[in-house]
Design a protein that fits this description.
This protein has about 425 residues and is an alpha/beta fold. It is built from eight helices and 24 strands. The termini are far apart.
Length: about 425
């Protein structure tokens, strides 16, 4: 068989002078897409999912993909292939679930052409109130029980709600006063809470307005109380929004200083105080739970928006809400450690109190201090004291070494919404 050899000669021709360089190939450059919205703040009425649309383009006419890539509330949004941004769940103006719980939702988006991303853009969606939805709510209607005490009723989220307002005798409508909300315990009532807490005894001297709300009857329990634990997502009654409405009403109609709103509560009311600390820290300056704890649900998802000052009072012999906790009660040392870490406290100390009632037992306070914004976490333990409100009057609190009302107010009144006043 003959072998065939082919010789290929390639002759290169150069153009131009002695440099001998060839011309560069024409490379097509891809340009990134862009977001072209004229505004980055939108309004959306509650009870609907539509939020806003992204206006984007690509100079090379490439197919664009829309992406959510950040923002404090990114997990609450979705975006489709047409750039329509929507809420995963229709927002409720009365029960905001944005990070700051102020009905202002933040999300960051960008677009992608398969090779390049646009710059990220942050959008704000302000949820507005649907007044037609307010047909299920009514403004408070109040009647005088005495010169200083008002009994009020309102409809909130289709439920009849009651509360008492107590004004100091020297009330001056020209002066903004602080507000204290006091929450009764389980199987308890607001009018009884007015009496045993002792807040009425100091209201004139200290100069604050007090509100004593009434809880509803808990399903399956048959007793009055508060639906504490969580942000109302899975609760039958949203006491969180009810308390928030009382705060807003007080600021709007009672001339309350919005920076000095405080909450205290006993037993089941103390659990509700912790719920408010977790989810309403943007409106409550300081917290005073007594003989309760943080629910395990709240402990798992608690999300305060700022450092929070807390004074907690508890009897060491409390068998109803044990200090060491149980399946329904987070151990107090665990709660204290969480709050200390949350507030970035760097100093711990113990103050030993006196046995003022001479029963052979005293009290002590475990204090976390040097915290952000000057807040303090104070867990005060009353030795040999059970499940009662602390009062030096034996008829009110079993004869404690401290007066709960004065002890609590001395702590609360040193704070406003921005931290330590002094």
């Amino acid at each position: 068989m003959k072998k065939l050899y082919i010789t290929l000669t390639v002759i290169l021709y150069s153009c131009g002078g002695g440099g001998g360089s060839s011309s560069e190939p024409n490379v097509i450059q891809n340009s990134p897409p862009s977001i072209n919205n004229n505004t980055f703040t939108y309004e959306a009425i509650e009870n609907q999912t539509q939020a806003f649309s992204i206006n984007a383009s690509d100079p090379d006419n490439d197919v664009i993909v829309y992406q959510i890539n950040g923002g404090e509330d990114e997990d609450l949004f979705a975006v489709d292939s047409n750039g329509q941004v929507s809420f995963l769940t229709a927002p409720d103006f009365e029960n905001p679930i944005d990070q700051n719980q102020d009905n202002s939702y933040e999300v960051s988006l960008r677009v992608y052409d398969g090779e390049l991303y646009s710059s990220s853009s942050i959008f704000i969606v302000n949820v507005t109130n649907d007044e037609n939805d307010d047909a299920n709510n009514s403004s408070p209607s109040c009647n005088n029980q005495s010169q200083e005490i008002l009994f009020c009723e309102m409809v909130w989220e289709e439920i009849n709600r009651e509360f008492y307002i107590v004004n100091p005798s020297n009330l001056n409508s020209d002066n903004q006063l602080p507000l204290l909300i006091s929450l009764h315990g389980g199987a308890d009532y607001a009018d009884a809470n007015m009496q045993y807490t002792g807040f009425l005894d100091i209201i004139n001297e200290k100069g604050f307005v007090a509100i004593f709300p009434q809880g509803t009857v808990a399903a399956g329990k048959g007793d009055t109380g508060w639906y504490a634990g969580g942000d109302c997502t899975n609760l039958e009654v949203c006491d969180l929004s009810f308390i928030e409405r009382l705060i807003d009403y007080s600021i709007e109609d009672l001339n309350i200083d919005e920076n000095r709103v405080y909450v205290s509560g006993f037993s089941n009311g103390a659990f509700m105080v912790y719920t408010l600390a977790c989810f309403l820290s943007n409106k409550v300056a300081a917290f005073a739970p007594v003989s309760g704890s943080m629910s395990p649900d709240d402990y798992q998802i608690c999300n305060p928006q700022r450092p929070i000052p807390v004074i907690h009072i508890h009897g060491t012999s409390d068998d109803s809400i044990p200090i060491q906790g149980n399946d329904y009660v987070t151990p107090l040392q665990q709660v204290s450690s969480y709050l200390s870490s949350l507030n970035n406290c760097s100093q711990n100390s113990i103050i030993n109190g006196e046995d003022t009632n001479e029963d052979g037992y005293a009290w002590y306070s475990e204090i976390s201090s040097n915290c952000n914004q000057g807040v303090i976490v104070n867990f005060t333990y009353l030795e040999n004291f059970g499940h009662s409100w602390p009062s030096t009057e034996s008829g009110k609190g079993g004869g404690a070494d401290i007066d709960g009302a004065s002890f609590i107010w001395e702590f609360l009144s040193t704070y406003d919404i921005n931290g330590s006043i002094n």
